[in-house]
Amino acid sequence: MARKQQSWSMVTVGAMALIVVGVTAYWFFGRNSDAPIEPTPTAVVETPAPPTPPPSPPVPEPTFELPVLDDSDAVVRNLIAALSAHPRLATWLVTDDLIRRFVVVVDNIADGRNPAQHVPFMRPNTRFQTTGEQPALRIAPVNFSRYDTHVQLVASLDTDGTAEAYQRLLPLMDEGYAELGYPDTEFSSTFTRAVTHLLDAPVLDESPTLTPRVSFFEYTDDELESLSPAHKQFMGMGPANMRVVQAKIREIATAIGLEN
């Protein structure tokens, strides 16, 4: 916009200068003359166009400075907060040791364990509910809606931004993973196993029957009951929610460059 205004100003000034020259010539040469005077051709001098300013150099992106693991929470919060505008995300980032917590959760899932104890802030606010009676006791559909907000948050994550954040923070994840007792194993391999495990979880459109125990429920089907705790916890979200989460996991894994 500034360049266009500057060019227009130069054209205006040039035009005004030509008018002043013409009026002045008439005043001096034509005012008191009895005979018509042949007009003296006036040389029209074209105003040279202003030089085109060189293109502005690209603004370099701010250099990302990897913090030490013990002081990484603030940096992680800033990176993750930029990935989604979902209001619930902020409540998930108030805990400490975010990198270490994430590493433990991924390690649990990769081995098929239920990581719920490490993320208590993600626990639903309502109790688990069932419908029917034996032998047709099943998970109540309303139970799945307890995870709708969780799934909406996951779906809202910027895929490329999440992949970039993962790559930037991977050295810290390696460090946190070494602290768990795996100094010779790259965290990325465990992350890949966790992704594969979640994508392998079966999605059941029909809610399976349950068998009540003293303080929990089991699947009546032996094959389902033999699934890993991580699979069974994931299946508790319900088929629709599982599909959304699995789709987002695939997107992010592809953006990172993982093969599944």
Looking at this protein, list some descriptive labels:
260 residues, mainly alpha, 4 strands, elongated, 2 domains, disordered N terminus, two-stranded antiparallel sheet
Provide an overview of this structure.
The chain has eleven helices and four strands; from the N terminus they run ααααββααααββααα. The chain folds into two domains: 1-59, no CATH class; 69-256, no CATH class. Helix 6 packs parallel to helix 11 (239-256). Residues 1-40 have low confidence and may be disordered. It is mainly alpha-helical and 260 residues long. It has helices at residues 2-30, 73-81, 89-92, 98-110, 141-144, 148-156, 159-179, 187-199, 222-225, 229-235, 239-256; strands spanning 130-131, 138-139, 210-212, 217-219.
Question: pLDDT under 50 segments (min length 5)?
Answer: 1-40
Sheet with the most strands: spatial strand order: 1-2
Estimate what percentage of residues fall within beta strands.
under 5%
Distance between the termini: 50 Å
- Based on Cα principal axes, name the global outline: elongated
Order of helices and strands: HHHHEEHHHHEEHHH
> How does the major sheet shape up?
2 strands, antiparallel
DSSP summary: helix tally:
11
Q: Helicity level, as a percent range?
A: 40-55%
> If you average the pLDDT, what whole number results?
81
Radius of gyration: 35 Å
What is the number of E strands? 4
Task: Give the helix/strand class.
Answer: mainly alpha
**How many distinct folded domains?**
2
